[in-house]
Amino acid sequence: MWSPYYFTRRCGLSYRKSSNLTKKTTCKVSCSQVKLEQDLDDEACELVRGVELNLGDGTDSIQAYLFKAVKNNNGTGVLLLSDIYGFEDSSTRDFAYRVACNGYNVLVPDLFRGNPWTKHRSKSEFEDWIARQSPERIAKDINTSAQWMVNEFIAAKISKKLGIIGFCFGGGKLLETLAQDQGAYFGIGACFYGTRMNPSLASNVKVPILFVSGDNDPLCPVDILQDLEKQIGRGSKVVVFEGRGHGFAHRPESAEEDGDAEVAFSIMRNWLHDELVVNKE
């Protein structure tokens, strides 16, 4: 029987955002921002380097941002697919930065070719905007990003598998990406409140996915996650946060959401660590 993990307790940790990151910067972060494993060195997340990249050639090239752990780099690549606000959004970059702080190399590609959705636009324009985001073009750009990571980390024999994280729109694309990859390069996924997900793709997914969502999120119904977890199997897990709506894990808007965002981050961190680091050898 399907039994999602429900969280009702509130964690006292604060989701403190780092300052917005800019081009080619090396930033220090207090390790109190990230609740590390007890057996990790508290000084291990001292440095993360950020650099802008152009991936691909000519008109097919896309922009991306790489967050690279400096002091504690474990040699593992993680592809992060953003929500509709794009790869330059501060909430997305802050989250990617925190993942990198735990030792990873996190690549955040521009899925919208410089035309992300913006909060000041009228909701009446959304469907027209999303219709102009060609699924074929986005799939190609994700593939370009994944291939860059394969060449950088797998072909160089630095890492055996890649990880992938997706938020909202990016969560739906995560499912499509893993269905196409079928375990060739990606070893694990973490999907935060994915939207427009196609359950029929689940049979082609060959790696476990962690699904994180709130039970008050009409954009990511829990019953769809239930269906995906059952179909994918392979140790996939659904974690549901009681009373939470869309975007709480990377865009917390209250002290209560801050606590749940910290719990969600910790669960995801352990999920990636167990598959990509512990099982790396």
Automatic annotation (TrEMBL):
<dbReference type="Pfam" id="PF01738">
    <property type="entry name" value="DLH"/>
</dbReference>
<dbReference type="GO" id="GO:0005829">
    <property type="term" value="C:cytosol"/>
</dbReference>
<dbReference type="GO" id="GO:0009507">
    <property type="term" value="C:chloroplast"/>
</dbReference>
<keyword id="KW-0963">Cytoplasm</keyword>
<keyword id="KW-0378">Hydrolase</keyword>
<dbReference type="InterPro" id="IPR002925">
    <property type="entry name" value="Dienelactn_hydro"/>
</dbReference>
<dbReference type="InterPro" id="IPR042946">
    <property type="entry name" value="CMBL"/>
</dbReference>
<comment type="similarity">
    <text>Belongs to the dienelactone hydrolase family.</text>
</comment>
<dbReference type="GO" id="GO:0016787">
    <property type="term" value="F:hydrolase activity"/>
</dbReference>
<protein>
    <recommendedName>
        <fullName>Carboxymethylenebutenolidase homolog</fullName>
    </recommendedName>
</protein>
<feature type="domain" description="Dienelactone hydrolase">
    <location>
        <begin position="62"/>
        <end position="274"/>
    </location>
</feature>
<dbReference type="InterPro" id="IPR029058">
    <property type="entry name" value="AB_hydrolase_fold"/>
</dbReference>
